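hi! just following up on the protien thing from before. the input was this:
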Amino acid sequence: MNVRRSAAALAAVGVLAAAAPATAADPSPSPEATVPAGLYGKGDPTYDGVWRQSLTLVAQRTLGYKPAPAAVDWLTGQQCADGAFAAFRAAPGKPCDDKLKTDTNSTAAAVQALAATGGHGGVVEKAVNWLKSVQNKDGGWSYYPGDPSDTNSTSVVIGALAAAGTDPASVRKSGKSAYDALPAWSIPCDQDGGGALAFQPDKKGELLPNADATAAGLLGALGKGFVARAGQAPAKDTCVEATSRTQVADNAGAYLAAALGKTGHLESTLPGAKAQPDFGNTADAVVALAANGRTEPARKAYAWLEKNASPWAEQSGPAAYAQLILAAHALGEQPGDFNGTSLVSALNSQGPAPQMDSSGQQHEEEKKKESRNWGWWIFGVCLVASIGVGFLLSGRKKQQP
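and the predicted 3d structure came back as:
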C-alpha cells in the first residue's frame, strides 16, 4: 500500500516516505510550487498530489465524513480522457499528452477514494477499464505501464478493483490474475526473510525481503485495499509453502509480526543514511496485520505509533494523518485521541472542511443518546441505593434503646 517516492525526492523533502507513490529518478520538487485550491496539504504535489488526496478522502469516509465537494472535484479533475491518473496534473484544463506520465498507483488510489465517496461511477469505471488495459501477462501490474510487475502496484490495483465491485480474480491477462502473480514474489520459508514479499526480483533474479511490499502484498492477497478491519487469525502461525494467496498472506503476516516483535516498529534505510524508524510502513503493517487477524503485534505497533508518530505526521502532512487514521480504524481505536492529538482534526484542517454525513451524524446522535441513557441509569441506581441506605439507617435508629 505504501508505495515509494524516489530517493532524490525523499532527500529533498527531508522525510521518510509518507504513503507517496514511487517514481523514477525525477528532479527534486520545487520549493516554490503552489498548492491548488481543493488539494489537501501544503507541500509540493508533483509526486504525490493524487495519492495524498485519495488517502485523505478514504480516511474521511471511514470516519463518517462527507468530503468537501472542492476536494472531490479536484481529484476527479485530475483524470485523463483515457481514464488514467498521473501523480499530479498542474494544468487539468489541458488534455493529457505524452509528456504526462500516468501510472497505476495514482489511478488505483483515486479509484478507491472515489468509490468510497460515491456518486462518481463514470470516473471509476473509466479508471478501472484503463487499469485492465495495462495488466501484464503475469497477471500483475507495474507502476508505469510496460514495466515488469511489482508487488506494490499489483496490490494497490487489487484494492481498487475490489473497491469498484470487481472481483480481482476475474481480471485476467493471458489467463492469469493478480492472485497468480503474488506467489512469485513470496520468499520461500527456508531462505533469509522467508515469508516476506519482495518488491520484485532484483537484477540477478533474486528475491529480497521488503517490509513495505510485504504489508502491501498481504492486503492484496486478502483482496483488501486501504481500508481493513481485524480479520480471523490464521490457522498456522509459521511459514509454510505458499501455494495459495491465503498462504501468501499468512506467511507475510508471520514475517511482519516477527519484524515488529522487538521494537514495535519497522525501520528504513535511505541510501547513505542510518537506519531509522519508518512510521509510514509501520502504520501500513498495523492495517495488514489486523486484516490477517494478528491483532496482538498490530496493537503493539499501534501503541508505538501513538507514542512516537505525531511529529512525523505533522511534518509529513495529510497522507501521514490518513495512514494513522486507517491504522486506528483497523483496530477499532479512537483516532480522535492519539496520545493527546486528534488525528481527525489534524487531517481535516489540511484542506477544505468536510461535513459529517447523515449516517455519521445519526451514529454520533445514537452514541450521545446512549451516553445520556447510561447517565440516567447510573443516576437511578445511585438514587435507589441512597434511599435503601436511608431506610437501613432509619431502621437501625429505631432498634436502638
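The CA atoms of residues 124 and 277 lie 36 Å apart.
The first strand starts at residue 65 and ends at 66.
cheers
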